[in-house]
Give the backbone structure.
Amino acid sequence: MPGENLSRDEAQERAALLSVDSYDVFLDLRSAVGDTEPGGAGAEPRTFRSVTTLRFRCAEPGAASFADLLAPSVTAVSLNGRDLDPGEVFDGSRIRLEDLAAENELVVDAQCAYSRTGEGMHRFVDPEDGEVYLYTQYEPADSRRVFANFEQPDLKAPFRFEVRAPEGWTVWSNGVGELADGVWKFAETKPISTYITAVVAGPYHYVTDSYSRVFEDGTTLEIPLGAMCRKGLAPHFDADDVFLVTKQGLDFFHDHFDYPYPFGKYDQAFVPEYNLGAMENPGLVTFREEYIFRGKVTQTSYEARANVILHEMAHMWFGDLVTMVWWDDLWLKESFADFMGTFANVGATRFTDAWITFANRRKAWAYRADQLPSTHPITADIRDLQDAKLNFDGITYAKGASVLKQLVAYAGQDAFLEGARRYFKRNAYGNTRLGDLLSALEETSGRDMAAWSRSWLQTAGVNSLTPQVILSAEGRIAELAVLQDAPESHPELRPHRVAVGLYHREDGDGPLVRYARAEVDVDGPRTVVAQLAGADAPALVLVNDDDLTYCKIRFDEGSLATLRDALGEITDPLARALCWSALWNLTRDAIVPARDFIALVLRFAGRESDIGVLQMLQAWANSALVSYAAPDWREEGGALLAEGALRELRLAEPGGEHQLAWARFFAAVASSDADLQLLQGLLEGTAKIDGLDVDQELRWAFLEPLAARGAADESVLAAELARDDTASGKRHQVRCLAARPSAAVKAQAWAAVVESDALSNALVEATISGFGQPSRRDLLEPYTAKYFAAIDRVWAERSIQIGMDVVRGLFPSLQDSPETLAATDAWLAAHEDAPPALRRLVLESRDDLARALRGQARDIAAAG
């Protein structure tokens, strides 16, 4: 990655000097088909022609600057009619521009490379039918892999794209396009940033619809809708549901934002081998195709897809219409979109319980990220593009969204939305910083946004809130207080608007219900909740009831005892989800032993009505076993989980989503010969569980544990691929192949990922996923030293996306010993001058490992 980085200082200097008037981009993509596929590491990349005409002004005529381009070669460069020598001005990542005029025209004719890593112009060949599919993915700075530009968010401009494609293909871009004389020509865009331009091209299956809205002033907005996927996925594509959520979202945002959707059409492309969840390109949103479900899934998957559709739609205003100046303020788009995704899901769609999923799933991501050594304020210090790439994290997304939920409670929903409306109107098609939004919110709420921002946006770390209950002689609450603390590394105590709920068991032994609630502004280390004085003694005190703030919930001893005895009796699903989340945090913090958490899951998860919470509990239970349980207890704990999962699987409603969730979890924890024989029987049809449909996706879920335990060899997996000879099937097969318990298999998988760049990003992910199997940690032992010997070279030679996948995915976390921790520390000590982004990834993995060792020590102590 040498020479590819761009610093914030360089971007600021360039923005002060230049302003962009327009881009005309011509791409010739006919090379995407035909010819022999390049093979293996070191092969010449397949390229396409890219011609950019860039018109811009310079505030200081005679000054020098540069344009960005990542390309194998440049054919010609012309600046203001003057031909420049590409060999002199292009260094592989930048084009040097000297003696600029007040008004300039730069023309760059280049050969750009198709990508196999999901960065730039990604090229995918469908193994099912040999068809080729292209799409672009740029965030934060990969449009320079496709055309020459000024790759920073504050140099916005209108774009006109023209694309020549293979015959029979359709091409889409941000604007409406038409085919004329063999070239697809697209309408000029509004001023937008480079990273949200987009091109999708190929023989995609395309479905259309339309949206219409009549506003109060009598004007009508018509938005053409489109949705597309590979032809091979067309039989599974439920476009009607995608359009339903899309229309519901457009209605919701028009109701709340008072600013009509500004980008004309609204296409949504579900594309193969995507390295993100989705991307908010205006007029042409791209999604990973896994959001098209080939088999039966639970409502959690549909809710998640709806949330992503709405998240990306919110970006049309937060991010596309109004864009941050630099990646420091990435939260101005991602935190808002993450909040708005759930806000709209609850307010506009059938997924009215989406805040439960948010509390249980999204915030777990935030809590983990905010306790890593790399934690950062929501408004981060982003020095360069590598920093920016790593800051698409749980803090920027989920913590930021949680903080916005707190802001809504603090300022009021009406004031919050009115502030957003003013923000859009004042800054349309422009770029903003933190202060621009805060000034609008301060106007509408009357609150001191500067103080709120200092506490919530400009400091890192998560507070813990613990109830303190003092009872009177009569058994009533004499005083109830909320204690707030913070870690030494991030000691900020924040203002929290919280609800405190009191729960008791009806009739002494009935369900746990809330009988009293009070809202209070927690400020400082101890806050008395005066409204609850005199209330009956509670069985459970739930701080942050209704999930208004962002904090780690703790319990007093009486409440914790109640949860151990009656967690499944809490009637309110959100309250129950918050208790589960709190218990998981206690487990990760080595306060509750892993075996105790697993016992709670085994006892109460079968009663969980919310399918999203259930699936999260199953994932947490597996993590508790793999990472936090005492090594000597893992076999026993695994057997208990498998036994419990099978029991719940047989008890679940036949054909229901809970049955499906328990079937998948049983496969994930199956270990005994009897477990494996049952999975084998379900695959072969010799065993049956009433109502369980073992479709193709579930077959692969059953095959992975069989492969990992040596019960499904290469021939079995080859036969399954023949049954499912698709791109999805290939990814599953690659993962299962790498999972097999053989030293030779592990060596082959390692070489395929670390020593070669022949695999696409999707197959790199699949190989890494299969490689690390906790059932055979001994086979992974030789790779600790190999990992630390390889990562600096991998980081230097591979794209940042693949570098991140390798450094994160192959860290020897399953070699969970003090020796591995020491090896990590030794690498960090010897590589103090390594790229900060690489050190951050290693530091994060080290922290996870140290946390696992503390959890194991706690679990050992609990065993006596």
Q: What stands out?
A: The mean pLDDT is 95. The chain is about 40% helix and 20% strand.
